[in-house]
Every structure is written in structure tokens, then in C-alpha cells.
Amino acid sequence: MGTNTYIVSRYPSESSKEMDTPDCVFVVDPGGDRKDAEQYRKLLKRCDAFVFTHGHFDHTGALPFLHGLFPDAPIAIHESDASYLGEGAYELDMEDFSALGLSQYVKRFFEEEGQLPEATLLLKEGDVLPFAPEWKVLHTPGHSPGSICLYNESMQTLISGDTLFASSFGRTDLRGGSYTQIMQSLARLRKLPPGTKVLPGHGDYTYV
To answer: What is this structure's pTM?
Structure first.
């Protein structure tokens, strides 16, 4: 479904980076399914957490498979989108993706892959990731009530989910979407330092 999945590695020193021995690795928006996840499974020597920019199915689909490989890794999502994981997730995904004509895709996935695990770490505005405190949570509702971006000031990098794309912004016609809110969120992102690299949930990267 064209979702960008990011594998983020933290290196405590230049030597650890050269030796490729990170002290933390977390995965942002593992979309797709088992077959898709197998394509980047070999890149994951470790996984210390899963982080979701929002709860829509195209960003969470590979979680059952990957969580089975790394069962101790916390599952982080904004508290307003937590209902997209765990019990009741199937009904929400069916509601959203039926509007896009993809209900059969969702149904087949849950039959083949099983239920989505529940969130174990609820995020909110201003939080830093406990396993990677250089990444700050920016609550940017509009695409969904719990949409977030992850901002690393020192690296001048923003992981923007479906709030901001290279040439557009996220749709607001799904459940809980709001055009007014996403305009406010985009106005906030516009204040980030010029040149900040933007890694979106779909498509190519861009810059503020």
C-alpha cells in the first residue's frame, strides 16, 4: 500500500556507528503484511520498540509478524489512536478502509495474520521517546485524532507520518479526520527550521 517504514538506529559514538553496533533500534510505521516485512527483516538485527505516527491499517499491518519476532519491544502510539491496536482494531480498520474500497484486503489480512497487538506505551504532545530521547513527539491531528510527527532537533529531521508529504498533506475524510486541524498542524510544522528534512509516511522525502 505504499507505506514508508523507517528503521531508526541510535549510535552512542562514531566508532559504534562504524561497527554498526547501535544501542537502540526502533521501527516507525511497519506497514504491509508478513510478505512485505520479510523484505526488510534482514535489516533488523534488533528491535527495541515499534512507534506509530497514527493507527491506520496501512501503517500497522506488519506489526503481528514483527511483534512475534520481538515480543518484548514496546508498542508506542498516541493515546487518541490507541484504539486502532488490540481488541476492536478490526472493526475500526474495516470502517475506514471500506470507505476506500479495501474491506476485502483488511478482512483477508486479519484472517491470515491475526489480531494486532495492543499498545503498551501511550504517547502525547511533548513526550520524548524513552528509548530515544532525542526524538520528540509533536501531536499533529487532522489526518486522524492521534496523528503525530517525530522530531529530532539535533538532526533537523522530522518523521511526518501522513500529516505532511512532499507535495501535499494527509486526507481528512476518514473517521476522526479534520481539515481545520490538519491546517493548524501544518502551520505548526511550517515554523520548524528551514532545511529540516521531512520523512513522510508515503512518497519521497522533502524539506521544510
So the answer is: 0.94
